[in-house]
Amino acid sequence: MTRHDRPIDETHDPGLRSWVDSANTAATDFPIQNLPLGVFRRRDRRESPRIGIAIGDQILDLALCAEAKLLDDLSQSVRDAAAAPRLEALMALGPSAASELRSRVSRILRSDGGIGDRHLLVPLDRADVQLPTMTRGFTDFYASLNHATNVGRLFRPDSPLLPNYKHVPIAYHARSSSIVIGGTPIRRPSGQIKRPGQVEPVFTATERLDYELEIGLFVGAGNALGQPVPLADAEEHLFGICLLNDWSARDIQAWESQPLGPFLAKNFATTISGWVVTLEALAPFRVPARGRSDGDPVPLSYLVSPSNEAAGGIDITLEVLLQTRQMRIEGHAPHRLSTSSFRDMYWTPAQLLTHHTSNGCNLEPGDLLGSGTVSGQTDDSSGCLLELTRGGQKPLVLPTGETREFLADEDEVIFRGWCSRPGYARIGLGECRGTVSAR
Ligand code: CA
Questions:
Q1: 110 and 143 share a domain?
Q2: Does 1 reside within a domain?
């Protein structure tokens, strides 16, 4: 049985309420039905990082739960993994371990029969949320047909898609050392740029800094080198998801990326949100894989399964907001630039993971797969400025009257994501924030 076939259980019950009052409000990303995992440290203490679960505007501290003997009925391996300073050990144990912990935490936090002890909580605003894993492998895909078409059209108006796109999930190996947690300032990178009309390149600060709205997929249990993961098993190896901003310097990218693809245009920083929403929490929001249009090739058989077609997609609404320095000074709220949905991706998460391992490449617990920029079909659903401004030719106008072709210093980019469906509690991914700083 694949993960998305699993029944929705009592932890998803929309009637569940928590003794943490802020978790019961309609607006929260972290109701008791979500229970995302993260790593944090209290700001006012010198303590080692520990694993927590976001609930309303609080964090349930698993170290304090263990001290209070609330985790004693879990298996020893799950207890050990919950006491680790990062999430890899829990991820490595596979979905049943995450499910065991989720079930226990749900019972601790529910108002009816839970453990109403506020000493187990740390307010989110008094915690430093850290990277959840020490990711060793980071791969960035290109799984949105709309994004690939829109970007391709800028360079090849007559044939925007390259001939391989609908056959093979395209990706490149990205850089894990420069993955940073939301809130980390993003220094404007310098690099080689060849400006239009100039013969020689110059080395200077990027003039075309962009964001890319993506979903990050965390690998759970790994696969041995030489052992591909069949599509039917792929979701057993996916732990959960986060928001991911693949910052991109378009001018550096344009000059350097032929013929081997992105390099310094992308590896100066990648921001992720801190709370990892498990696939189990996402179970109510599974949708069919995006249908193929007439004339699209049927993928090769290792990328096809009935369960993937029936429920391989995830319905996640995503939005991008921008707040400039002048907007902050004048008191303007962040301005929404676009909204899109993860359900529109051409390739599903399971297909990305199976394709990655199809040659025997081994994935490890905590590895991160970027989905690629999530764009829809309309102008207001493009997941990066390169698309929104047509490569800088159609500047955006902001509430202050400022315009943007690309990002300016002190611009803050904010991603949000959430899932909602009638009959279920809305759950969210939190936010992924980053502010551009001058060199
Ligand atoms: Ca990307």
A1: no
A2: no
Together in a domain, 303 and 275: yes
- Are 319 and 339 a contacting pair, CB within 8 Å? yes
Phi-psi region of 187 (alpha: psi -120 to 50; beta: other; left: phi over 0): beta
Domain of residue 123, residue span: 10-130
Report the first-to-last Cα separation within the chain, whole angstroms.
51
Q: Ligand 1 centre and the CA of 178: distance in Å?
A: 14
For residue 141, report the distance from its CA to the centre of ligand 1, in Å: 7
Tell me the average confidence (pLDDT) per consecutive run of 10 residues in the chain, 439 residues long: 64 97 97 98 93 98 97 98 98 97 97 90 98 98 94 89 96 98 98 95 98 98 98 98 98 95 97 98 97 93 97 98 98 98 97 98 98 94 97 96 98 98 97 94
Tell how far the Cα of 154 is from the centroid of ligand 1, in angstroms.
16
Give the Å distance between the CA of 193 and the centre of ligand 1: 20
Establish whether 332 is a catalytic residue. Answer: no
Nearest residue to 246 (alpha-carbon basis) of 120, 117, 383, 366? 383
| Residue 117: C-alpha distances to residues 20, 33, 111 (Å) | 10, 19, 11
Q: Which of 4, 147, 237, 356 is catalytic?
A: 147
pLDDT at 4: 52
Residues 120 and 150 in one domain: no
Distance 171 CA to ligand 1 centre (A): 9
Residues 301 and 396 both lie in one domain: yes
Neighbours of ion ligand 1 (CB under 5 A): 140, 212, 246
